[in-house]
Amino acid sequence: MPSLPGAADRCRPNILLTGTPGTGKTTTCEMLVEATGMRHVDVGRWVREQSLHSGRDEEFDCYFVDEDKVCDALEDVVAAGGVIVDHHSCDFFPERWFDLVLVLQADTAVLYERLKTRGYSDKKLSENMECEIMNVCLEEAMESYKSEIVQQMQSNTVEQMEENVERVAQWVADWKPQTT
Fold this sequence. Notes:
Elements: E1 15-19, H1 25-36, E2 39-42, H2 43-49, E3 53-57, E4 62-65, H3 67-79, E5 83-86, E6 100-105, H4 108-117, H5 122-133, H6 136-144, E7 150-154, H7 158-174
Parallel strand pairs: 1-5, 1-6, 2-5, 6-7
Antiparallel strand pairs: 3-4
Helix pairs in contact: 1-7, 4-5
């Protein structure tokens, strides 16, 4: 897993963890925090708690994220390094912020059960399933960041999540700031 030039001012890397809702982003982030001591920023929680939105979408039971407000709120946090940003969308974050972009994916049968357990409406469940089938999050990451920092990871089982965390924790331990 390579590092993005421009991170020379940070002592620790920043990671963006993205994927369709239900692929295990928050669980994986919590495991990574335990393994690395990095800080987890759950963007969805920040949007709710800091009113970084422009209203609510009742049909999909979510907020309309104000991307400019989110980026403004996160700027100083990510500047220090050592942050794992967790969000299902990734195309609005500045490329310079991240040294590694992880895209979690899950088999559709696994994802369906996870979303159904969350109580998603049929419409919201269907849209998220379609996003996973069409690789929307992976394509968004590949279009928004240098391909060498984007890593795709399966997240169907606890064992896969643990393997992913071990792999990323080793990458974090080996990471060195790029010198210019």
